[in-house]
Amino acid sequence: MTMRSLLRTIALPVLALGLAACVTPPEPKDYSDFRQEDPHSILVLPALNNTVAVEAPEFFLSTISRPFALRGYYVFPANMVKSVLEEDGLSDPSLIYQADTRRLGNLFGCDAALYLSIDKWESQYVVLATQTNVKFNYELRSCETGDVLWQDTRAMSYSPQASSSGNPLADLLAQAVVAAIEKGMPNYIPLAQQANMLAASTVGQGLPAGPYREEAYKKDLEAFPVR
Amino acid sequence: MFEYGSYESSLYTYYKKPDMREKFRTSLEKAIEKGEQTDRLAPGLYAELGYLYLQDGDVKTATAMFEREAAAFPESRYFMTSINERLGQAPSEQSSDATSSDEVDGAAPADAGI
């Protein structure tokens, strides 16, 4: 056996190990407080916008209800809730986010409220490539006690690549075109949808099955453990 | 499990272009119809639809929608009942004459106490 092939046999498993370490799922969260509270309904609040994209909160709001409802919860009508809060002089989410969560309980009768922040919502063009980035923070608080029951953060990126044609000049042109298209109409919504789906339903990280998912409700203690 | 139809995309379009409000309404109606047929009605849709009627000044239809939301999803009963009370119409005793938009404007923005 030559030195080189020996090295290769050693190197490959090490590399594979390294890769495996990268995809190891994070430790499941502790669901003690969540299980204790056992919320049946979620009030989705308009998101706090920590970016310069003024349109981000409304666009984000349109993507948030479904993934959380699909975990088995009653999700309050997001657009109606937003409008009712605005009518009540609370169009600035920071006012809501500073207030006691229990007051939301008094107003809406929710079991839990989902506090959201948009921390990235940007599309950057750098030499023939456009990268679109989003980052969100999710925090579920009890409407009864105000305690945080669950928290998650998701960041997603997308950079379109033109397929290779074998002609370098044509490829360059095609890449310039896809980058320009992405810059003109960034794919924020698919990224937000992916982020929300991952936040809500990743095993051990998202929300345990709620009462509208009868087949799994209170039967997923292994995936969403209490420590 | 829940039938949302095109709720997400039509709400997005409505936020992007407010003149697409009728398309949002139609999407809600379709999603509700499909959800009722398949017994997979999604939470919040009756209420979202009711709210559009309320903005149009049709208190009667709005109240009826809020009642349907409360009947389909007990989790919403507290909120729906309090909205209907704020509209001056106790649930399940609808009157047919309180439909002027002036009354809506007067009734809706009560103090929330937050």
Can you summarize this structure?
The complex is a heterodimer of chains A (227) and B (114). Chain A is α/β, with parallel strands linked by helices and 227 residues long.
Main traits of this protein?
heterodimer, A: 227 residues, alpha/beta, Rossmann fold, 8 helices, 6 strands, globular, B: mainly alpha, 6 helices, disordered C terminus
Commentary on this structure:
The complex is a heterodimer of chains A (227) and B (114). With 227 residues, chain A is α/β, with parallel strands linked by helices. Helix content of chain A is 42%, strand content 21%. Chain A has a domain of 133 residues: Rossmann fold. Chain A contains eight helices and six strands. In chain A, strands 1, 2, 3, 4, 5 and 6 form a six-stranded mixed β-sheet that branches. In chain A, helix 3 packs parallel to helix 8. The longest helix of chain A is centred in the N-terminal third of the chain and has 21 residues. Chain A is globular and about 60 Å long. Helix content of chain B is 61%, strand content 0%. The longest helix of chain B has 18 residues. In chain B, helix 1 packs antiparallel against helix 2, helix 2 runs antiparallel to helix 3 and helix 4 packs antiparallel against helix 5. Chain B has one domain. By secondary structure, chain B is mainly α.
| Percent range of helical residues of chain A | 40-55%
Average pLDDT rating of chain A: 90
| SS class of chain A | alpha/beta
For the largest interface in this structure, which chains are involved and how many residues does each contribute?
A-B, 43 and 35 residues
Residue ranges of chain A: pLDDT <50 for 5 or more in a row?
6-20
| Oligomer type | heterodimer
Instruction: Please give the largest β-sheet of chain A.
Output: 6 strands, mixed
CATH topology of the domain at 26-121 and 133-157 and 190-201 in chain A: Rossmann fold
Number of strands of chain B: 0
> Helix tally of chain A?
8
